[in-house]
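quick one
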Amino acid sequence: MSSKVFSAAVVGLDAELVEAEADAGGGQFGQIFLVGLPDKAVTEAKERVRSAIKNSNFRFPSVSVTVNLAPAYLPKHGPSFDLPIAISILRISGFIAEKINLDDYIFTGELALNGDLRPMTGALPIALCAKRLGKKVLFIPEENAAEAKLAKDIKVIPVKNLYQLVLHLRGEIEIPEFPYQDPNLINVPIEYDMSHVKGQEHVKRAMEIAAAGGHNLLMFGPPGSGKTLLAKTFPSILPDLAFAEALEVTKIYSVSGKLKEKNGLIKSRPFRAPHHTASSAALVGGGINPMPGEISLAHRGVLFSDEFAEFPRPVLEALRQPLEDGVITVSRAAGHLEFPAKFILLASMNPCPCGYYGDRARPCTCSMMQIQNYRKKISGPIIDRIDMHLEVPRVDFKKLDEELPGEGSAVIKKRVQQAREIQAERFKNEKIFTNAEMSSEKTRKCCALNEEAKKLISNAIDTLNLSARSYFRLLKLARTIADLDGEQQISTAHLAEALQYREKA
Ligand SMILES: Nc1ncnc2c1ncn2[C@@H]1O[C@H](COP(=O)(O)OP(=O)(O)O)[C@@H](O)[C@H]1O
Ligand SMILES: [Mg+2]
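structure w/ adenosine-5'-diphosphate:
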């Protein structure tokens, strides 16, 4: 006597079909043999499943049971195979009759010893997998039902416990399916508003451009000049997430076990601020069962690297691939995995080790050598991938205190949002959302210059010795500035402003 039910295993940010087969053998009563590359958490399923079955008033087959999780090559992590294993065992012991067809169902969830279902990670990728495979119903712990239902066209049945589920499968009770509700993507208000920052108008302007076009921004300035404060206000001007983006972000948080939202969907752009002592794996991702790192948790949002020069060199170098491609490749036992990592890098650093190089009020105590070494910590290839370089001088905010408060974030965000709408139209047939993501090809097409602007840029190339990469960055930046202006044509003024943000030697 054997049985088979379907489940799914999360691989990276997606899931793949897994079959849980059970076969009653000739061994001892109550014994379970588990095969099919299970990790420790899966192996412990034996004990949980045995107790859950017993405590749900069902009986075990009177012989031993072999459970195979197939395909064997697919690594299976975590406890969410408890439920399919339990169902396939109950099938061979006759508690779920053979005539009840389970082929169109996916079962997933961890069992508590008393038979209750526990919340799990990866519900959204599993639901999307079930939908892709054309399965009709997903049985999932009730806490994860809202998240799973984001996949839309699949019936999601929220399960409380094993007993309830078996009665439902036998048609003795009916668990109502979880209803789909259109998620409301309006952002929650953010604590730090730009109007809290006195002065620094040029920094706010640069942040507006960065938010509008998805450009990376590096702030230089002495301690106390407000770099950290400015960074904290950045989320308040970021555009709302589109539903497709919100799903991408939610998947990342779901597999990382970091999804806290009640209705399952992440609605605001992530803002991650890893400390410079964070390990390379924590930052870029990895591990035996590879998990997304900070740069992927910042996907479609912001990675704020405060004290950028303090990050260890290898960690900074690991940012090169994601800054270029928007993905990170992590290796695992069987091949490689890719996690998305499209984020705005917002970095801040002091201009020198003591912090006061170039400050008006306080002398710098560093030698030229020390200053050079400090700057060299950020390598050329990283600097080259940062579109905007900005000095943040100290302001006398006692004086500024008397001034009227500046623009509030809501007003700025509106302009950012409008510039994003222009970009959405521009990229409607492509997989990108922002000017910063344009290929060189696309940049050439979308950033045609008039004669005057061409003259300005060829002068700049000669006098500033611009590399090809900086040239394209400049054009993309000018594109965003023009979009904020609502202008189709990039003017010399747009280009001139973009030039201001290039790297200062
Ligand atoms: N322009 C400003 N407007 C209002 N408060 C400011 C401004 N600049 C700095 N501050 C305040 O000064 C303190 C130091 O700022 P901080 O952002 O930590 O500086 P930094 O990161 O550049 O060292 C904070 O308490 C911050 O709120
Ligand atoms: Mg700071």
